[in-house]
User: What shape does this take?
Amino acid sequence: MLAGVSRERRLHQDEAGRRGPVRLMRNLYSITANQAANKEQQKNLDIELFRGFAVAITVVSHFGYLIHEWFEWTGYFWLGGGVDLFFAISGFLITRSLLDSLERNRSFVAYAKLFWIRRLFRLWPAALTWSTLFLLLSIFVDFTGFERDEVFRSWLFGALNIENLYIYACSKSSPPCSITPLWHYWSLSLEEQFYLLLPFALFFTRQRKLLIWPCLAIAFCQAVSLRPWGHLLWFIRSDSLMYGTVVGIGWRYYGPTLESGFSAFPRWLLQLFLAGLSVLLIVVARDQISQRHMGLVAVTAGLIVLILSRNSNLFTEARMSKIVATYIGSRSYSLYLVHVPILWVLREMLLKFSTLQIATNLQHQIFALALGLAFSLILSECSYRFIESPCRRLGRRIASRA
Assistant: This one.
């Protein structure tokens, strides 16, 4: 009888031994699945969707580079709010990322180095690739509207991340410089300048939550100032970046208060607020409403990011909307880079080598626009897949070893 009990015990132990690896694999799979789900949950898909909205506004504002006659209607509203929304989103995301990094890195060198390496590999490769390709193209193609040396200067100062200051100096020269297809790099220069300074401000300020007040003061001083194009404040307009930074700091130090405030509103009302602010971002941007409309646009962009920052999936709850938001958000940077050169090159080709009457024929104009958008989307996809993503992974690997 003891032998039978012993044999039964051994069989039970053998069965448990066989089940052990299975149970272990199941546990590992469960942990991996949960990590993947948490990563997806942490990604703010509403922000990704609104990246797409921001770049859409910006692309529309540049339709006139393809069909000059369209500047009349694209300029009815000042559509610079797309860039301001980009700035506010960047201010929030970068501030949140840096505050997280500060908890893991007590040394400024370690903390700043990791951030700057990732930013370098995240932004520069695609930006330099497309600006250099256009610079090379301008050597062989005689574009109308600007000289080759002006393209070179735009390329150079864009690479040095001072394009905004260069354009400001250009606007004061006599005669002023001609617009080139690389002038939209001014906003990238301003962002890079912000990325350079913010790590210092966050690291060397011990009471970081108090940074909310100087950020708001900087934003307010700009909001009440007149900033016509050509004014220095136009090219260093950082009020949207400041609002995004305030939102990032606010969630870190006053998260429960913000959450309590959001909880007081039903979901449908937050959706309504967000939709209304999205419209307001465009319609307030007219001198007839206020000569300080740039400040109103920046405040609107900041409020949009405040609502988006809660990560409530207000417009991205459905599976298809998640897919669309992820796709659009991930390609928005490359689309911003390529669309102006594409529109400019396409106009040159159509005027020189086609019979399309893009100045007078509406059908031809729509066809030309469809071509421009198609080429922009194709090249932005190529840029994301073959430049952005590999370089971003390389940057993460280098940063992890630094």
